[in-house]
Amino acid sequence: QVQLVESGGGLVQAGGSLRLSCAASGRTFSSYAMGWFRQAPGKEREFVAGISRSGDTTSYEDSVKGRFTMSRDNAKNTVYLQMNSLKPEDTAVYYCAARIAIWPTSVEEKTYAYWGQGTQVTVSS
User: Is the pLDDT reported for residue 1 higher than 80?
Assistant: First the structure.
């Protein structure tokens, strides 16, 4: 079992930057592929970014490509989401998640077995 804790959320103005972190408590962190999802008020949770176990493969939702970068530091049991050029549409609760799967990354929520409780990101216009 893995415990995930997100941090780094907050209030920023449009065009600003923010870096989210997700710390894992487990000892087998490197065996998990990781993902970031977000959920805005009144909307379903959606995929944002994914990264393979070693960090050599990433994938992004189209609307964040070129603005967001996902990375991981297995020595620190931590994954990151660097968010630049933030837009009001990025406002949401951001969740990190972990999975064990054959494919390097996945956009499907059901493939992620472990979830953090989320961190709020608010982008003002």
Answer: no
